[in-house]
Amino acid sequence: MPDKQARPIILPEWDLPLPLMAQALWMACHTLASRPTRYHAIAAHHCSLIFHKKSHYKLQLGTPSNTLYTLDVCTFHVRYQKATMAYLERFEPPELPTGTSTLRSQLELGMVFHARQVPPSPSTVRLLMTYVITTDKAAREYVTGCRRIQDHMVAGGGIQAFVEGIGHFENCINSVKRALRALGRLGTQPDGPVIDRTVRKLAQSKSKTITNLRDAIEHMDADIVTGEGIPEGAPHLLTIDKQGDHLEIGTHQISIIELHGIVKALYFAGSAIIQALPTPEPSADAAP
Fold this sequence. Notes:
By secondary structure, this protein is of the alpha/beta class. The protein folds into two domains: about 10-80, no CATH class; about 105-275. It has helices at about 20-30, 105-115, 120-155, 160-185, 195-225, 255-275; strands at about 10, 40-45, 45-55, 55-60, 65-70, 80, 240, 245-250, 250-255. Helix 2 (about 105-115) runs parallel beside helix 6 (about 255-275) and helix 5 (about 195-225) packs across helix 6. The longest helix is centred in the middle third of the chain and has 33 residues, at about 120-155. The protein is elongated, with a radius of gyration of 28 Å.
């Protein structure tokens, strides 16, 4: 007779090839019970148990054609458990309206088709290119981070997508920090482009927030050792709050909307700088 008090096998929502998942289930069966008739099962994602004959159930993984095992069970209590990370209640970030047009592509096209001229000073050119590349990266990392977190939400809790998304947001914050610094130095160059006053004020007001986040990310190992800067219950790695509104680490945080606004402002400021680069004056002997 099967043991009615048998312990359940709990399978997480693994994203594994079907044969590997079946093998893992079979190994778990032999670990928790001496014979297949002694356990209750909790079906994992992509698993289903279908009544087959008098006391038989077919374990199916994926589609009905992928039946890998038949379990001989008399007393079988089955329930479906969809594992969710259950960390975010929602995640609805604003989108960046950059499309596929990067600042780098705008600069290159402007130089090729409109003969736009970069500043004469090599240091100013290098600062401009640094600003263009880091702003493009910040936008790219923001978009990719949002997509990976959304993948996590749609998949019902895949931790890999969540961790990867957070990694992209870390890169975004680091790139924003570099872009803000390059923009500030670019505005002090004698031959530098004119920086919009609104953008300059934004850069000044958000610089401290971004710097604190970046420093917390880069130096959290020291804070962990000393115990400073990490209140009880505060995250020691960058993460997103449960409501899906803020990125946070230690005592520092920034809203997704605020980060989006900074990246968007940097992008449009770069686009305006590129459009304002001078083009050659028409020669006096040019044909009318």
